[in-house]
């Protein structure tokens, strides 16, 4: 069943269009991420769903009910803010129960429900502490519990991990996804972090300039990008400009690349992921010159120049007896990849 539906939703600020006639559906129990660069319209979309911003036109339908003209407190939603927005003068339990208090839930029921929500995020033992006594990860989980206790029809997350350090971000990311799946929470999340979106989401909606560039599963967007913007934004890709001729794709500097198996026949761009490319010292393949080597631990990243075109290659770090051991910048190399891993794309 559809939990959320946006129908031709549009937001204008004077002559500026923040969101342009967007259509989107979220099925019950799904986690959908709005992904895109700053200013693409993703946060505006989230706040129109929450009711904090009124759309210029279009409809927001929640569980089959048109809520476009309803105030935020009249919608069955819960928004977790980027800054957590915890009340410093309230205990953890009081913060979690605040929404219930606004709904006139009695004290005994409010305390019981707040404690149950804290148990779900494994913080019931900290119910009497204040936000200043918690770590960043713990504060994030309190914010989640404050939304969970309301039993919302849809859970809204606004850059929920942006204030955490890299290690803690990975841990909390797993906790949020596990909680969302176990409780079958319908969730709409805004993020600019590709890894976050790829690992947490059932579906992605990639936005740019107020428009949806592509929507689908993480695999759809990664393996089958609709255009050069999607290929370049989701994960990493070598997006190479050139032209299609009878014998294949020629880069702007004249290098002939292996035929791509899919894409637009008259495309201006050729796309292949760095991990799909093999690098050798000699043999078959496209000839290039090694410009840079970056050691990344388990992986090594090579930058290879095909004429004036830069191509990135990522492989497992070679061992001391590997043929690639001892490669140095300036060395000639050969690049090979399967045509099935390359796509021809429009701008």
TrEMBL record:
List GO BP terms, alphabetically: quaternary ammonium group transport
Which residue range or ranges hold the ABC transporter domain?
A: 4-234
Superkingdom of origin: Bacteria
Molecular function terms, GO-annotated: ATP binding; ATP hydrolysis activity; transmembrane transporter activity
Check the record and name the Pfam families matching this protein.
ABC_tran, TOBE_2
Q: Name one GO cellular component term.
A: ATP-binding cassette (ABC) transporter complex
Q: Which UniProt keywords apply?
A: ATP-binding, Nucleotide-binding, Transport
Q: What is this protein called?
A: Spermidine/putrescine ABC transporter ATPase
Q: Which organism does this record belong to?
A: Pseudodonghicola xiamenensis
């Amino acid at each position: 069943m559809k939990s959320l539906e946006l129908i031709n939703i549009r937001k204008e600020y004077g002559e500026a269009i923040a969101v342009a006639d967007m259509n989107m559906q979220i099925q019950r129990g799904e986690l959908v991420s709005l992904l895109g660069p700053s200013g693409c319209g993703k946060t505006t979309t989230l706040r129109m769903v929450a009711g904090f911003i009124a759309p210029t036109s279009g409809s927001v339908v929640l569980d089959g009910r048109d809520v476009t003209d309803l105030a935020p407190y009249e919608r069955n939603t819960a928004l977790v803010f980027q800054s957590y927005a915890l009340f410093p003068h309230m205990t953890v339990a009081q913060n979690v129960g605040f929404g219930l208090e606004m709904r006139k839930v009695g004290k005994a029921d409010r305390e019981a429900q707040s404690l149950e929500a804290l148990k779900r995020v494994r913080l019931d033992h900290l119910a009497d502490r204040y936000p200043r006594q918690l770590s960043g990860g713990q504060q994030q989980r309190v914010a989640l519990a404050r939304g969970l206790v309301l039993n919302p029809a849809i859970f809204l997350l606004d850059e929920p991990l942006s204030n955490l350090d890299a290690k803690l971000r990975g841990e909390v990311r797993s906790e949020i996804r596990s909680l969302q799946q176990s409780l079958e929470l319908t969730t709409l999340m805004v993020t600019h972090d590709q890894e976050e979106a790829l690992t947490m989401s059932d579906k992605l909606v990639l936005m740019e300039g107020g428009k949806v560039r592509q929507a689908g599963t993480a695999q759809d967007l990664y393996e089958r990008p609709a255009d050069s913007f999607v290929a370049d934004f989701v994960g990493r890709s070598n997006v190479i400009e050139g032209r299609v001729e009878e014998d294949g794709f020629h880069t702007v500097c004249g290098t002939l690349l292996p035929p791509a198996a899919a894409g637009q026949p008259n495309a201006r761009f050729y796309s292949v992921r760095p991990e799909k490319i093999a690098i050798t010292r000699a043999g078959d393949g496209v000839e290039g010159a090694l410009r840079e080597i970056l050691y990344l631990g388990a992986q090594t990243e090579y930058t290879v120049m095909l004429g004036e075109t830069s191509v990135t290659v990522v492989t497992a770090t070679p061992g001391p007896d590997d043929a690639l051991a001892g490669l140095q910048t300036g060395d000639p190399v050969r690049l090979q990849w399967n045509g099935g891993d390359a796509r021809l794309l429009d701008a």
